[in-house]
Structure formats: structure tokens, C-alpha cells
Amino acid sequence: MAVIGTFGSFTAARLGIYASQSSLNVTGNNIANINTKGYTRQRMDLVSLHSWGTARYANKMSQDIGYGVMTNGVSQLRDPFIDIRYRDEQANVGKSETWLDCLNQLSHTLDEVGDGDDFGIVERQFNDFKLQLEQLLGAVGTEEYDTTTRTSAKVLTDLLNSYAKALEKVENNQIKQIKDDVTTVNTILTQIRDLNEEIREAGIHGGKALELRDERNVLIDDLSKYIKIDVSYDMEKLDEFNSVERLNISIAGSGNPPIRLICGIYGTQLGMGDTAPMRNPEYNFDDHNDPNNFITTNTDPVTGKPFEDANGNPITKTVPRPQYIAKIEDDGTIKYTNNPLTEAMAKAEAEKAGKPAPVEDPDNPWALEVNNAKTDDENEGDNRVWMNVQPLVTRKGYVFRDSEGEKSKMIELGDNALYGGLQARREFVTGEGEFSSATEIKYDKDATSTRGVPYYRYSLDALAQQFAKMFNDANRMDFDMVTKAYQLNAAGDAFVSKDGTAIQYTTANGTMANIDPAEFDDLAADIKELNELNEKLKDKDLSDTERKTIADRIKALEEKGEGIEARKEAAYEKMEILRQQGVLTPEYAYYDGGVMFSSSGDTNDPTGITAKNITISKAWSTGEVRILNTKKPDTVRKNEDGTETYVGHSTANDNIYHMVNLMTQKLDYLPKNTVADAAQDKRYFNGSFQERFADMNVTLAVDRQTTTTLYNSYSIKSLSLENDRESVAGVDLNDEATNMMVFQKSYSAACQLMTTLDSMLDKLINGTIRS
After folding, report:
1. Is the N or C terminus of the chain more exposed, i.e. has fewer CB atoms within 10 Å?
2. How far is CA 129 from CA 285, 467, 611, 620, in A?
3. Which phi and psi angles does 326 have, rounded to 5°?
């Protein structure tokens, strides 16, 4: 017989009614939230109620049966593995989507690849400038054609200025957007931390807080687009007998132990200051546990003092590698520090204290200010937009301590510590591509292939500089002409002005000195020898010994004095002084050439030309300098009476022909010519001015196409994973309708059971015949 009380079946029926009703309530809740963002389908967990007890007078004929059904709580239908895959894919989507958005902004700036009405405007202006030069061929010396050529050049430089300023605006907008993204990420992290606290509180009192978990999952999904993350759960011990579930979020691939963003009720914030101390490129900020971040040495790498034991004997220690550079001496010696203060912060501390710190202590709080520390934000375009992770704290500010009692500390993030939308925008504002320095390559081994705004800005600068250099050189005397074109004193060791005094220039130390004619002849001879040696190197039949001898001589000539480029620059500056103060010889009395393009419209100085500041020179704009039709000296004809007559070349146009040919001449572009500390010394392009500009647009177009393909691929995969997740966690009306019918029938059946049991007992109690 069954071991159940006479009235026990009523309990089973009653529990069945309650379970069916509760399940119907859950079904109704699911249907009501079908359009709620992030809602996870819920399920009433049912368990059978049964007794394990044994009757005192039990026998083998007795059988234990269940006492009905119990509701064991409400749970969510969610697949953690799909969540992991979806969030990983969201990081790919975030990175490609952000990068594509940035490239699209560039394409709208550089109209050659955009959809604007001014399609190909720079290309057309190059053609127009060439056309004006060609028309000048047949009208040498005419004011009208010289003016139209100058006007065309001015339009071209204005376009380059406009493009450079537009690039700068894009860069500034993206930097602002990074700050906004960091604020968004920090808001998400704060919300997750606060939700964790509420969920923990509910868990302590036995609640599951399913709706709060849904809200938290939505935030985690949002966070995964900005940063690739790892999400895990463990149990946090409350006391010896109780524990509660704890959520942990860390930066994916951040080493062991990972860099935590969330640890239960503790959360961090991303930091990104306006200034940042110069980092030690030898330190791996992507993995702070990298063995290379520790060095074995007998001297302190910060103070330079030797390590000693208690007896004063020298010893060797393994110590962490310093993270920051405090100062770079003029001789290249580096002083290190572990103090993350920026120069601005150090100055503020020094002013607050009213006195500077000792210079000999590079690791003290104010040493960066005293030592004139290098900061990454000092040079425009070199700011790496460094970020860090602040200590983990609760809502009330309590700092997290690990199992060993160590407080959570601020952690500097490396150049590749992040992955996702936030990192994509960082790379866009820092990626210099082929212009990257050796230091930047140490920060990021893929730096030379990351082409962001700085790459296009430097590319545009390189075009402007090459264009200005070639035409300025073409419109100025060759170095070997200078001593022939300007009158010298009797001794031949100085140029003379109109009043007969020696022409002087200001030296680097501020003193005045005569311009030495020999400087030009020596420079011309060295340039000629360099050109000849470079031609010889093209001979494939040269032996290794001959090739090495030639290469050594080339190196010696290039490094002679201050270096060949510095000598050229100095010679050109002195030539400008001679143009203004010197007296031309009769053979060169026609000379009215000079600088065509400068870095400012108020000067004739071509030093420091960029796409942003290139303009026609003051002398050319006022007509003081004209386009030089020839560089040939006037010829001397002997007359019968012994006098000499100078025959001019007023109609010669060989130099204008040369300028026209410059527009199609193949030129080498080297990163070091634009960025002095660029690591690569090989050319990255060879072609004409227009081809260089077109190549920039081709590079941008290819990057856009590649990124678009990646974005479409990642989006499709992410959508597929989202559909897979929705098939498990989402509300399906068909399933809910089926459940509604099932629970309605089970409710009706339980009620019918109650009625039947009542009828049976009524018969038993009231219908049995009494004797």
C-alpha cells in the first residue's frame, strides 16, 4: 500500500495547482517582455516532493510515492559559451566599425576618394599649374603669364593648406571622441559595479535578481564593443558557511594574472590624461609580468648607485626595469624613473610646495619638473594617447585587496593591451605607418603598417616639402654659380654689398661673420662627387671591396660637417642674404630668381614647410622674385675696339622647361626626409607629385575596401551568434503558447484531481453504511 496520509493527496493536488499557476505566471511574464531589450527567457524550475523517511512498522508491501510538485525557483535559459563567442565577435565588430568610420571621415576630407562635387580638385590644380608653366615657355619675361602662374601656385598651396587643416580637424575630433568613449566605458563599468552590489545583496537574502542580471548583461555586451573582455564567475565567501556568486571582468589577453576591470562589488576606471610621461620603450606595458621587465644588475637603474650588502660589499640584484624616462641628456644619456607624474603635474606640485626638488634624485615627486622631463604630448602627432587602469574600488571608495592583502594599484596599459573600438580609435590618431620611429616600433611591432591620421598628414607634408624643394631649387642658383654671380672683394674671401662692405650672417652663437665663398664651391664639389658615386654604385660588376669603398666615401661625404642636408640648408639661407644685399656680376645681372615657396607668406624662409603652412614666398608675391627662365650666364662678345658686350638670354627658357619636366619627374620619397626620427630609411614611394597624391588616395581606398570587407564579415558572424543566442535566451511566442496550453491543462487536471479526491472522501466518510 502507498505510504501517504488520507488527506495527503489533497496536498499533492494543491501543490500541482500552485505549480501550474506559478508556471503560467512565468509564461505570462515572458510574453509581456518579448520586446524588452536584454530580457532573458525565464523558466519555473519544478521538483518532485517526496519523503525519504521509513515507517516504524514498514513492510515490503509499502511503497513510497511522491507528495506532489514543488517550485524550486525561477531560472534563466542562457548559454554561457554562446555569450563568450558573441562578445568576442563584438570586439571584432567594434574595432572594424570604428576604423571604417574613421576612414570614411578621411575619405570625405580627401575629396579625391570622396563623393563631393570637387572630385579630383588637387589633381586638376596640379595640371593647371603645369599648364601655366607651359604657357610661360612662349612668353618668357611677361608679367601677365608670370602672374597667372603665381596665382595657380597660390591656389595649389591653399588647397594643400585646406586639406592639412581638415586632417587636423579630423584628428582633433577623434581625440575628443576617444575621451567621450573613455567616459562611456567608465560609466558602463560604474553601472556594472553598482548592479553587482545590488545583485550580491539580493543573493545574500536568497533572491536571484534576474532582471538586474539582464540589465548587467546588456551593459557587458555594450562594453565588449569597446574592449575585448573575459567574463567569469566564482563564489565569494561571506563566512564559513555562506557564499555568493561574484562576477569578474578582465581585459582579454592581459597576462596572468589578468588586468581586472570588475571584481564583484569592486570596479575600476580607465584613465587618460591630457599629458603623459615618456615611457621606457624597453618596458613591456602589454604584459607587466614579462620576464624582460626585470633586469639583473649591480647598480640601481633609477639612481645609478651601486647595490651593496650590509657590509658595504657590491652585490647583484634582479629588479624591475624602470617604466618611465625622467630626462634625456644632450649626449643621449637617459635618466629613468618609476614616478608616473607628468611634467604639468610635477610643476603644479613644485609650485604648491614653493621649492623645487633636488636634481640628483630623478625618482622624487617633483624631479620631472626640475629635470625638464620629456612628455609624450610635447610634440604634436607624437602623443600615443596612453591609458591606464585605476585601482579597483567599491562605491564607497574602499580599495580591493588580493588574497595576500596587497592593495589594488594603478596599471599602465601598453600600446596593444586593448582590442576593440577604443583601441581602433587610438590607433587612428597615433598610427604613423612608414613614418614611425624606432621607439614607436618598440611600443608596437605593427606600427609601420598602422596608417591613421598622422600617416596621411605626414604624407601630405612630404608632398608639400618635395614640391617646394624642387621648385625652390629650380628657381635659385646652383651652388657652383654663387661665386660667379656675386661680386667678391679683392682678396676673394668675402662677398661685397653695394657700399663695398663684406656681407655677413648671424652664426648659431649669435655673432656676426662673413659669408665664405669657399663654402659654396666646396658644397658644390661634394654634391657632384656624391652624385657620381651613387651612379657608380648602380654598376652590377663592382666587387664587394669596391662597393664598400664607395659606400664608405658616400657616408663620409654625407656626414661631413653638420651633414650634407644641413650644409645645403645653411647655404640656401646665405644665398637669400646675398640676393637681398649682394651685387650681381655683369654675367648674371639678369638674375631675379629666388625662393618661390616658403613656410609663411610674410617671409622667404622655406625652412619647416608643411602642407599646413606652405605658401608662395613674400618676394614672389610682391614681384621681387620672378620665375627664372634660365640659369645660363650672359655671354661676352669682344668688340673690334677691344670693349666687351654682354649678350643676354632674355628669351631663353631652358629652366622653365626644367620646371615643366619636374611635374612628371619620378622622385624618391623617404620617411626620414619628413620625420627626422623615422626608423625606415628606404623609400616608400617613387613617382611624380600627382602620382604621390594619387597613391595616398589609393592607399586610403584600399584600406576602406579591406576594412569594409572585414566589417561585413564580422557583422554577419556576430548576427549569426546573436540569433543563436536568441534561440536559447529569447522569448519565442510558439514555445510560450505551447507552455501556456500545457500549464493550463495541468492546472485543470490538478483541479479535477482535487474534485475527485473530495468525491472519494465524501463517499468514504458519508456514504459508508453504519451498522
Report:
1. C
2. 50, 12, 17, 15
3. -85, -40
Write down how long the chain is. Answer: 771
The answer to whether 399 and 260 are in contact (CB under 8 A) is no
pLDDT of amino acid 640: 73
DSSP 3-state of 659: helix
Residue 49 CB partners (closer than 8 Å, separation 6+): 12, 15, 66, 67, 68, 69, 70
Residue 394: alpha-carbon gap to chain centroid = 31
Kindly state the cell numbers that stand for 746. 495541468
Q: Rounded CA gap, 703 and 491, in Å?
A: 63
Q: Give every CB contact of residue 692 below 8 A, 6+ residues apart in sequence.
A: 459, 462, 463, 466, 667, 669, 685
The long-range contacts involving 632-635, CB below 8 angstroms and separated by at least 24 positions, are 633/481, 633/484, 633/485, 633/587, 633/588, 634/586, 634/587, 634/588, 634/589, 634/590
Helix (H, G, I), strand (E, B) or coil at 700: helix
Cross-strand partners of 251:
229
Decide if pLDDT at 637 tops 60: yes
Query: What pLDDT sits at residue 458?
Result: 96
> What beta strand segments (E) does 639-691 contain?
644-647, 667-669, 685-687
CB 277 within 8 A of CB 340: yes
> Is the pLDDT assigned to residue 333 strictly greater than 90?
no
Contact criterion met (CB below 8 Å) for 717 and 91: no
Quick one: which of 611, 172, 254, 114 has its CA closest to 428? 172
- b/e sequence 514-529, b meaning 16+ C-beta within 10 Å: ebebebbebbbebbee
- Lowest-pLDDT choice from 164-173, 278-287, 447-456: 278-287
Q: How far apart are CA 304 and CA 334, in angstroms?
A: 11
CB 526 within 8 A of CB 560: yes
Task: Kindly calculate the radius of gyration of the chain based on its CA atoms and give it in whole angstroms.
Answer: 40
3-state secondary structure of 317: strand
d(CA 240, CA 201): 18
Indicate the angle between helix axes 453-474 and 689-729, nearest 10 degrees: 180
376-413 pLDDT, tens digit each: 444 444 567 889 999 999 999 999 998 888 999 989 89
C-alpha grid cell, residue 549: 669603398
| Whether the predicted model's global pTM rises above the 0.90 cut | no
**Cell 578621411 maps to which residue?**
106
d(CA 321, CA 415): 18
Can you tell me the distance from the alpha carbon of 87 to that of 195, in angstroms, rounded to the nearest whole number?
Answer: 19
Arithmetic mean of pLDDT, 129-141:
86
* Domain regions of the chain by residue span: 8-77+730-766
Residue 182 pLDDT class (50, 70, 90 cuts): very high
Average pLDDT value for residue range 492-509: 90
> What sign for the dihedral angle of Cα 66, 72, 74, 80?
negative
pLDDT digits (tens, 9 = 90+) for 528-556: 999 999 888 888 888 889 889 999 999 99
